[in-house]
Amino acid sequence: MPDRLFPTLASGPDKEALRFGDTSLTYADVAAIAGTLARDLPAGRVAVWATPSVHTSVAVIAALLAGVPAIPLNPKIGERELAHILTDSEPVLVLAEPGADLPTGLDGLPRRDIVLEGAPVALPAEPDAETPALIVYTSGTTGPPKGVVLPRRAIATTLDALEDAWAWTADDVLVHGLPLFHVHGLILGILGPLRRGGSVRHLGRFSTEGVARELATGATMMFGVPTMYHRIAGEVGEDPSLAKALSSARLLVSGSAALPVHDHQRITAATGRRVIERYGMTETLMNTSIRADGEHVPGTVGVPLRGVDLRLVDEAGEPVEEVETVGEIQVRGPNLFTEYLNRPDATEAAFDDGWFRTGDMATRDAAGYVKIVGRKATDLIKSGGYKIGAGEIENALMEHPGVAEVAVTGEPDDDLGERIVAWVVPEGERPAESELADHVSRLLSPHKRPRVVRYLEALPRNDMGKVMKRALG
To answer: Residue 467 domain-assigned?
Structure first.
């Protein structure tokens, strides 16, 4: 019989497992509620209206117990994208929080509200490790979203690798306010603590006050995205209670996009704690991380996790051996997805002789630490014969006091091939374009300075806080 994905559920202790606001469930509660629901789920895929709630958590756990693939749906999803996902995945049921207002696109699908009641039941036998667990749809930046089929094996592997990297134990209490339709908030932020036998306190909606409260009352870890840590960095120097709470945390983890070095520095200066960055994708789950017992190198995403093979390749597909040389990240290991649902062509194109092509560009230093420089399609700028990563320019610009937020892109240039464009949200008075160009030239090199600066009131971001660079221009 395969090892259980959630061993602690089988024993059903009275220890707190999930807390959302005033609602708290023990492992015994979760086992009873999710176990009861699991018995009644039909064969076939089920959609989950993934509000940031305990109901979403229980629904996904029930599907996992039953061996039924769950499809988390973003509550802010648009009509066209929803229609595509439903047609592509053909769920037989939608599970939802009671009272949730579902869009008309779901009218044709049977609905079941998640009731937080259930009597103790024997949990179903553990499904095979290759059984599809979740189908998570990508953001669809290059076409309609693709359904990433994640087997139970990938979830268990990645969470156990993080146990090793972060010394994650049953004693840890995690706080976060991440959405539950994505890998970060759902797999790492909900399923991770449950696999370890620990606890999670979800804020519902992120706030620095909520983080401070939970870390001051027993939480040991925080997961967040750069927009959250940017808010923390802006407040922590002037808020002693926030600084004290963060300083008590065992682990602060940032992911889903690069955290600017300047924000690292401000948080560390105020708290004495360093934020750990890790790197993953929907298709691969987690690939690398700064280790809890390793050297902290701000601006990097650490070293490959246990069980993950990682290499960089050049444009010809040849391995890059030189340190500090840009290449595309390719990975292989048991953390990878099975396939893109109904897309054998896309699945085949995504692999190079067993290695998954991430599309992310990075460098590697002599100690093996990986630094992401951006996406191959949008963040690698070829200017004046140089290959330049947008990320290092963004980090440099964030060190300027007149820059609150920034995104760097390339655009066609007759002379340079591409010219570097900085999209800047000013901090107070707008800095001069020449001042920003000189700032980058001084910190990096002249060929990396922005040739054009465009000022914005806000950068376009998706629900995970990632800047949507394709919307710039």
So the answer is: yes
Helix (H) or strand (E) holding 287: strand 285-289
End-to-end CA distance of the chain: 55
Domain of 52?
A: 7-183
User: Residue 163 is part of a domain; what is its CATH number?
Assistant: 3.40.50.12780
Which contiguous run of DSSP H or E holds residue 94? strand 93-96
Residue 214, pLDDT above cutoff 80: yes
What CATH number corresponds to the domain at position 416? Answer: 3.30.300.30
Rounded Cα distance, 188 and 156, in Å: 11
Place of tokens 């629904």: 59
Looking only at the bridges linking them, the beta strands covering 199-202 and 16-20 are parallel
Instruction: Tell me how far apart the alpha carbons of residues 62 and 189 are, in angstroms, rounded to a whole number.
Output: 17
**Among 183, 212, 237, where does a domain finish?**
183
Residue-level pLDDT at 251: 97
Confirm whether 328 is domain-assigned. no
Q: Is residue 230 very low, low, confident or very high in pLDDT (cuts 50, 70, 90)?
A: confident
Residue at token pair 């629901």: 37
**pLDDT tens digits, 397-417:** 988 999 998 989 888 877 777
For 439-456, write each residue's pLDDT tens digit.
988 887 788 889 999 999
Question: How does pLDDT run across 132-169, given as a tens digit for each residue?
Answer: 999 999 865 456 789 999 999 999 999 999 999 999 99
